[in-house]
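Posting this for the archive.
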Amino acid sequence: MSADATMAQVGDASLIKAVRALDQGDIETTPDKLERVWNLLSQQRGSANFHAAEEMLLRWLLKNMTGTSPAAERVRRYAPAWNIMGAVFALIPLFSLAKSLADRRFVSILQQTLKDVSKPQKQATQTQPAADSDVEMADASSPGTPTNSRKRKRSTPATFDPAMQRQAAGCLEAGEAVLEALRILLSRCDLSPADGPPNNRMGAEHIKSLFSSSAAEVMETLVPLLTLCGVAADHTEPGSSKGQSSWMETFNALWDLHLQSASDASDVAVNLSGLGMSLLGKLTGVPRQRALAIDAPVQERWARGLRRFLARNMILPSRSAYLNNKKSMQVIQVVVEMSAVSAATTYPVLFDLVSKSPRVFGDKNTKKDYENWVQDIFDLVLGSLKTCNREQSLPAVVAIMDMAAERETHLSTASLQSICKDYAIREDTFEWKLLLSLVKLKPDVFLMPGGEQFLDHVLRRTRESETMTDQDFDTALQFVVLLAEGYANARDLSSFFKTWLSNLAVAEHAIKLERLWSQRELVTAVARLLEGCLNTNQLVEILDWFASRTEPAECLARIHILGAISLGISQEEFVDAANIKTFDVAFLEKFSEKEPSAVSVSRWTIAEKSLSRGTLEEAGRIWSQVKPDLKQILKKASVHGEPTFAAFKSCVAAWIANHPGGADEEDAAAMACSFIDRVEESGEPMADSDDVQDPITKGTYVSWMLTSAPRLVSLVVKRTGVFPNLILSLISLSGDENAITFDSALTVSHLVLENENNTNNQKLISGLVDQMISLVDTTKNGGSLASTRVAVQFLLDVPADIMARQQREATMERLILQLPQNPDVPESIGTGYWQPVLSLMVKLMEKPTFYVDMGFAHLETIGKSVFKIHRKSKTTDEVLKAREDFRLLGQLATLTIRQMASSSLEDREKAYLADAIAALQSPCSDSEMVPRLVLLHSFISVVQGSQALARLKESGLDLDDLKAQHLLQGAKPLACGKWKGRALLPFLTALEVMDVLDHETIKRELSGAVPTLLKAAERLLDSGCKAGWEVRMFLAKHFVEQLESPLRIKLPSLASADSDDEAAATPDERISVPTTVDKTTMLQYVDVVIRGVDEDTKLKHLKELLLEDSKESDPLGRLFVIYRLVQHLSGSRPQAPTPSSSDFDLGQAHSLLCEELLRTTTTAQFILAAMTLHLLLEQKAAWMTQWNIDLTLSSVSAACSAPAMQPLLAASPKAYQWLCRLVEMVIKRHRKRLDGHFHVLITALQSLIRRLLSSQPPSGKEEEERHAKLFSRLITLVCEPSVASVSRSHATASTLDSEKDKAKRYAGQYMYLVLMQYVKLQLEHVVPHGVREALETGMHSVLDITTPDGLRIMNDGMDPSGRVIFRELYKQYQKFGKWSGI
């Protein structure tokens, strides 16, 4: 006998002895004895072959929990006892477990326990439990057992004291243990036919039968369970345990086991409706959010499960009874009566459930029937609320109407008017939130007969806006806006204009408007609605009516409303009919300085719109009328006032309307330019200024000039000859430093350059560029000035073709003057200075640019200055930033030297190159190594390919000596073994500039540095630095033999494989690699490794990668390399195998990749494997055999059906798309191989459609519809094949039947099976409307090729429910589907 068996026997004996000892001693010793049992059970749990001890223990526990004695109650309330019972449930065979549970009446004990713990004491006792061993026993756990992971931090641990057990904390602790044990028991009973021996399945059914009682009896378990959930939600100590998340699933599982009957809905309504809806209201925040003791994930899970339970077992049955039994409301009547106690919470939840209940697809009932059902329930709830006091009924009505308005629920006008009368409008209070919901849902409440009195009350209240709170004011404003939309929907906007005028005008004050009715939101809304609900005749009539209103109080209000009309006119017919008429009516009242600001803004807005839309003659008449007032305003009024801004717009409109050559152009231009100068001279408004409510700043003027009036700047420059100082002051930061920031200056400069009228005006843009060049400070500290930074950024953004050579040279001169005299002493400029400056220099030098005193020393000074700034760079990010600056320096040096090394060397070029050679050959300290390497690299790369090389050699240039010096300088940082911290920048720079040396020189001179480079690459890659790949690529290019497994790539982190533009990307671009790896670098590395390698070697690499153990390598990196290798392999078969050729080919690689596809564990791996398979099927078709085609389709079926693959497919919508693409490629490129194997394709299509309809994509509805379109495309490819996909290369021209018709007839023998699967799945799952529409095209194409015999087979193979769905589908096909697409 083995030692393990001996230990098991000893453990069994000890457990039996401990169980027998439970009957010894009094009740107070029970915790200690149970603790000993727990410890013994934990030690031998899962290893025993016999379960007598566990059965004895279970029976003892159930025996001592039975009865009404205090001792039995204490055991029932003791959480560790239920923890032990849950562990025992997991160990005893189901058949024996069922017998023990039935003998000891487990269900009755469970019900009594739940009743006990669902009623905690309201007052906490002062008794403190003694510290005993119960704490340790309750918290103990062991491997291999169901763990009670309770993490609620309570003030008291598990206790055996009856007083503490009756408190809320004790009840919740016991309840958690009870429901966890029950969960374990029910989960063991969830077996499939293939799980375990028959005895297990029989025992599971026996246990289920214990809970198979009537609905009335099962309520004795469900009611206290739901009450316990409410106790947990309302508990004073926040934080829920992990076990609580499964409570609602246990609740639903118990209900699913009961004996169903016709009275189930009534039983649920009587026993659970009030309790359930009250709890659901707390969980969902209906009617208001409240703080609960349970965590948010648990709260969401409970709400989802409880909502599903109430909808399926109460709401939907009551709706069916209403629709099928002559409007029976019995169930809902019971629900309303049972929920009346907490109506403020339960009635909104009831309406929420009712209004969200889905319609049944294919139901015979009409939409009106569903609306009547909702209406009757709404009336029933309102009737019940009338019996409640206002404090309870008003929050319920507000919540219900808020939901109804949000969901656009159809409710009768009479019901809504009764709400308005009883709740919204009272003599003492106005419920603005309720009124807003009413007008949002149905404006007819106030517009139809019976609503006039309500509207009068509301309008009267809106004229008292001074007494409203800010919240009520905002709500009332929204009400008025929605009221205008209601008038517009009723095609009666003219009536709203009259209402607006009567409420906007203030009778007591001729120079005042009602505050609420003069808000800009209302003006914008009316302008948006105008042309959609009025015709030109109606608009003219309302303008005539406005003209007839001559009362002093209405004159100013009329102008304000006409401003909204003017803003809303845009179509030509409206402009012709009402443009000038609107102006004439508005200016019947002469301008006054005392009129309200809103009226002045409307007045000048009308003038602006009339001028911009009118003819030249109309513009002249308008200008003659408004010129005096405009002149006075623009000359004397505050430039920060909104009316002044509107008047300026009118003046600009007059100028543009008269340009060119209009009679009034000079007057308007002079007035506008004078005002622009006035704005430029004025200061910014004070923050505490009371002159204007919303002051207009200089930035507002400039932003409007550059965006809304794009021609204005060009006109000003044409008239004055200079760029407007108002704009230039903001760009150059020459104004108030407190008001102008660097970011605002950049914003203005971008607006200037984005305006095509500016960039296309050569005079304007050239002058502006000259002014920006002058802003570049030439002092040594000028680079730190904000004006210089703005100028540099502006010149960098200017299109390169705009700047002339003189401007480029002037810019370079000013930038060179900023260089420090002594680069060893860094100036007070930040590290961000050189990046834009060097970028600008590179841009300037891309075209011929020879500035004064141009010398190579300038490049040296720049390099030293950049290095001094970055010399303290230690972190990887800082080093990479420094590398970017030195790369810009390298580009600048290359462009500059290339200009000087032209084919014709003049004195200037010779002097420059001589200075460069002398400087590069001079000694260099280690501190200057980085800039020297960059400049050496640029010089050698330009000169060695230049036509002037021969002449330079004649002048004394020794290029080999320079290369030797370059090698000497570069080898130092590579060979010294230092690449950390500050040494990383010289190391990477030396590595980058080695490409000017030939391969043999590098191999000879740097072979000793290979170990250092290998170590550096490994460490950099481990730290996630992209530079590690550059080191590895250098080694692969020159020392590939030194790399061990060069194609074994380990990616440091995973990135998402999803991309929004994946469909439009190339295969290389669709590969998603980690963010720490550059895609281009990865592809280049693989290309370098396999460069010059023959096909057999590539196949050998591919075989090694595919056969490599995934546990010992990085799967994503391996698949990435495999994909690239397949791209490089030839797609054609060799005519004759050579003796050295490998026996491994791409067909075998395809088979291994199919296995790899089903072993992937992440979405990125799955998509890479699928992409590689797609590449093989598409571009390497010559290697694909019949086996490969069948295996591809089988792999698709397995991926859709395998349980292990479901989380992966659900993680990303792209996974399903690639499965569809694999099948699509088989159909397109390998259609002939499906002959005789069509059943494999059918299986794949059935698996794909099952996956489509049975799962919810993570991205929601739109992604699901996209998947449906992809699948429908597969169906149409099968049923409507292209000629190319079915043609045989050896087909003869004498055939009388086309290959396409043969393929369609052949597909018609099988494709009806996919259609039958689609019908069956509609019975099992809810199919959204958009998905059905997307699939219709494919299903109609199946019906196109299905013969009458096939239709009869389908009809015989469906059940009655399936035939109903198929009949509807066939009707749609007969109406819309019989179309060939031609």
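Residues 296-324 form the longest helix (29 residues). The two ends are 82 Å apart (CA to CA).
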